[in-house]
Description:
Shape: globular
Largest sheet: 4 strands, mixed
Number of helices: 11
Mean pLDDT: 97
CATH superfamily: L-arginine/glycine Amidinotransferase, Chain A
Low-confidence stretches: none
Strand order of the largest sheet: 3-2-1-18
Distance between the termini: 30 Å
Number of strands: 18
Amino acid sequence: MTSLPTPAARGYRMPAEGAPHARCWMAWPCRASMWGERLGAARAAFAEVARTVARFEPVTMIARPDDGAAARQALGDVVSVLELPLDDSWARDIGPTFLVHPARGLAGVAWRFNAWGGKYPDYAADAQLARRLLAQLELPCFEAPFVLEGGAIHVDGEGTALVTEQCLLNPNRNPGLSRVEIEDHLRAWLGVETVIWLGQGLVDDETDGHVDNLACFVRPGIVMALGEPDPRDANFAALADNDRRLRAAKDTRGRSLEVILVNQPATRMIAGRRLALSYINFYRANGAVVGPRFDDPRDADAQTKLAAAFPGMTIATVPALDILFGGGGIHCITQQQPA
Length: 339
């Protein structure tokens, strides 16, 4: 453990995603080697998500200086653009994780970033984005001494975190840290007390099992999780195991978790790999849930379950397949800044 005072030691904690937001941060797609001929479609899809979120809270799109003018033209007046160096477009993972303090207000954590365990060689700008953004916002920056991505963690705001073994225990992230040491880091840097470990993520998930594809807190004590009823599906065993773990777990306050299962969409393949499609990968805005559509028969059931889980909130769905081609979903491309 670092000897410097950690965020939790100073009284900071990560709030729940349902707490009020001041802003949503996104990043304009730019890695041409990854998007290829789909770059234009990805930008159109990101713009639709940004404009949808902007109906409910302010949105700022970070764009490379060379892309700033094109981003402004595509986004219109409802989304602001901030020009900073970028390698990729996954704001959840490369942006800061914002923290709150009852007296000092906001701060942020800059996690060490290594492009999801070295999946891409060029990530120097992304590794600096959290620090640069916090400096731009004139907010305190806590520089974490370990690798983590924002999509790999989810908290209930009352002291409980959800993570996966596949991601956080992966030797391509922090090979020198044990499970116990990683839990200690999460407590010190997120202000949580209890860590609930899920197992494996989705097949062909480039993030090595980010939890934001698998489960999230609707509110303390209630979790929405991805399911699959067909034992022949390649994701069945992992999702069933995660469901069992959630139902056996207790949160920081000693509650058993109520689990709302939402079945995954049908298999979609691109270039021999399965897209990591998940209805759990949504963004919770002020007064709304912005969720994905996949042109799938299960879209309607997912929307119904979101509406039941979030009564009184607007459920706004947007097409997400063009985002998923790049390896992530709506939650992956957004990052909330607490009010």
